[in-house]
Amino acid sequence: MIPIPTPHIEAKKGEIAKTVLMPGDPLRAQFIAENFLEDAKRFNSVRGMLGYTGIYKGVSVSVMGSGMGIPSMGIYSYELFNFYDVENIIRIGTAGAMQEDVRIRDIVVAQGACTNSAYGEQFDLPGTFAPIASYALLEKCVEKAKESGARFHVGNVLTSDMFYGENNKSGFPKWQSLGLLCVEMEAAGLYMNAARAGKNALAIFTMSDSLVTGEATSSAERQSAFTDMMKVALETAIEL
User: Fold this and answer.
1) 77, 194 in Cβ contact below 8 A?
2) What are phi and psi of 47, to 5 degrees?
3) With contact defined as beta carbons under 8 Å apart, do 186 and 69 qualify?
4) Directed axis angle between helix 187-197 and helix 70-83, to 10°?
5) Residues whose CB is less than 8 angstroms from the CB of residue 171 and which lie 6 or more positions away in sequence, other chains included
6) Sequence ranges of the domains in the chain
7) Cα–Cα distances in Å, from 215 out to 28, 100, 105, 188, 189?
8) In sequence order, what are the residues at sequence separation of 6 or more whose Cβ sits closer than 8 angstroms to the Cβ of residue 76?
9) Alpha carbon distance 150, 17 (integer Å)
10) Superfamily of domain 19-237, CATH level 4
């Protein structure tokens, strides 16, 4: 049994809320804590992966960076689900649009997450596992997205192990042809960990760039300006 604190999270029991928002960038976690949470207290800074717990509209909510890629998300979400009694993780990240009608700055809610990763091989299944969101989180998030008035889409996404890759140009059109909305790097691993732990997970993305048009936002905007997604996630979190 791994003791608390864990090798990657220095929080004590009770310092992390039942629902955690997880952006990839720890500075985005800090931005959310400083701009949306009351009485936010930092519970983690190990390896610079900042985590905070505070109050949003009277409800305790935590926010913590996940890092980039399934291995990083896999470590943090596993420890949160299995050692810190976290029930819900909502990933709030950026992604690249893969369809013409998905524009930069649009929100995508990931109903399912296809992947080119071998992460699922650890479960030694006799077939292919389909990582999907928890329906209760998905339903509530869609409701909040509608209320927000933000432009959003719901559907399947691609979780890729590669940001730069030899088969990106040839491989992505094949995924596009199956209607996948966008590409990112963490959701499938999060969904698998949630399923294995019997917990709940959802991934929400703001489109930071487009593989179709070539448009892109700046790194500064990705860190702090995608507030529609953040508000939708927070409004979802307080009703869980």
Assistant:
1) yes
2) 55, 20
3) yes
4) 30
5) 116, 165
6) 19-237
7) 22, 12, 10, 25, 27
8) 8, 9, 22, 49, 64, 65, 66, 67
9) 27
10) Nucleoside phosphorylase domain (3.40.50.1580)
Tell me, yes or no, if the pTM score tops 0.90.
yes
> Residues 25, 106, 209, 228: which is the catalytic one?
209
pLDDT in tens, 25-65: 999 999 999 999 999 999 999 999 999 999 999 999 999 99
For the question of residue 161 being annotated catalytic, the response is no
* Alpha-carbon span 170 to 123, nearest angstrom: 29
How long a stretch of residues is the chain? 240
Q: What is the pLDDT of residues 198-220, one digit of tens each?
A: 999 999 999 999 999 999 988 77
| 109 phi and psi angles, rounded to 5 deg | -105, 120
Q: Has residue 83 got a pLDDT over 70?
A: yes
Q: Is the peptide bond before 126 cis (omega within 30 degrees of 0)?
A: no
In contact, 206 and 107? CB cutoff 8 Å: yes
Distance (Å, rounded) from C-alpha 159 to C-alpha 193? 14
DSSP 76-126: HHHHHHHHS---EEEEEEEEEE-STT--TT-EEEEEEEEES-SGGGGG--S
